[in-house]
Amino acid sequence: MALLRASSQAVGIDVGLSGAVSGDGAAGIENSVELLRFAEAVQQRSTDLDDRREALRAAVGDLGLIEAAATVSGFNGLVRVADGTGIQIDEGVDAYTADVRGDLGIDRYSGAANTPDRGLEHYEITTVKELF
Amino acid sequence: MSDETTPSVAETYRRAGYEIPEHLGSAHDRHWPALGGPGDWLDGETRRRIIIETRNARNCELCRRRSEAVSPNAVPGNHDATTDLDPAMVDAVHRVSVDAKRLSRTFAEAAMAEMGPGPYVEMVGVVACTWLMDVFAWALGVDEPGVPERRPGEPVGEIPEGTGDVGAWVPQELEKVRANVTRALSYAPLTNGSWRGLVNEHYSRGEQFGHLVWDRALSRPQVELVAARTAALNECFY
Fold first, then answer.
1. Do B53 and B111 fall into the same domain?
2. Domains in chain B: how many in total?
3. Which domain holds residue A17?
4. Contact (CB, 8 A) for A115 and B237
5. pLDDT tens digits for B87-146?
6. Which of B135, B144, B19, B54 is nearest to A71 (CA)?
7. What is the ipTM of this complex?
8. Of A57, B95, B106, B209, which has the fewest CB atoms closer than 10 Å, so is most exposed?
9. B25–chain A nearest CA distance, Å
10. Is residue B3 part of a domain?
C-alpha cells in the first residue's frame, strides 16, 4: 500500500487508497477495474477467472497480463514469508502509512501485533529509499 | 536442464499461448528445480515433501474447519497429509500455506522448539516459493509445475554469520540493508536465494525497485495496485 501511494503521487495521481485496498476501484490508475477483478479472481480461484483474464488481456495486452500474474503470485509468496516469520514493518513504511492504516483497517490485521507502536507520525517521501 | 519430458517453464507457457519474458522463465527454470535439492537445513526429499504438503493444505479438511473457527487452536484433528513428514512439520506447512494471516509468535516458537529455527525458516521459504509458482500458473490458466526431482546431498547445517534477534519471530541478518522482508529468510541463505531470485523477477527487478516510475508493461501504480489488493485479500499487515 505504501508503494501504491508513493508511486501514484510520483506521477500525479491522487489514488483513493480505500477503494484500492477494498477492491472498489482506484481512480486515476489506468485499467484499475480490470486489474482488481483479475487479482481477486486469481486469489479466490473463482469460476470467472477465465473471463477476468481475457478482460485484462484485452486492456493491457499479453505482457501486461503476465506482469499482473507475476505480481499476484509474487505477493502470494511474500505474504507467507512476512506472516510466517513475524517481521516488523520498516520504520519508513510505518511513518509513511501511519495516517491511513487505521482507516483502511490494516491495523486490525493480526500481523500488526508484530510491530511495536513506535509513535511515528506521517511524513511525505520522494524516494523508495526513505521507506526502507 | 530440460528435455522432452520436462519442458522448460518458458516452453510450458509458450504451449499455452504465452511468450514469457526470458528473465522470468529462466528464474523459474533455475530456482524451482533447486528446491528438490538440499538446502541449508533440510535435504531435498524433505523439501519436496513440503511442496507436496503445501498443495495438500489447500484441500485439507482440518485446515478448512480451522479457517472457519475463531481460533485455529480450538479445532483438533489430523491434517490430510500424504507424506511422512514429522507431524509438527506437517502442521506448520499447512498453517503457513493456508492460514498465514493468523500465525502468531507463540505458534512459531512452538514449531521452532520442535524442529529448530533453521528448518522452520527454510520451510517458510519453500512454502512461499511453491505459492509463487502455483499462483502464477493458475493466473494464466496453466497447470502447476511438477514437484522438482530429488537431488542428492546433505544440507549445509551451519548458522549463517551475522544473524540474530532483530525483533521478528525468527533469527535474521542483524544488518539491515534493504526492506525487512528481504532478510526474513536469511537464516536459510540457499532458500532465501531461491525465494529472492523468484520474487525479484516477478516484482522488484533489482535496481528498478528503487524507482517510483517504471517503464514496464504495467506502470508502477498498476503493479502496486495489484500488490496492495493481493496483500489485503490475504490480510497481510506487512
1. yes
2. 2
3. 1-114
4. yes
5. 999 999 999 999 999 999 999 999 999 999 999 999 999 999 999 999 999 999 999 999
6. B135
7. 0.97
8. B106
9. 11
10. no
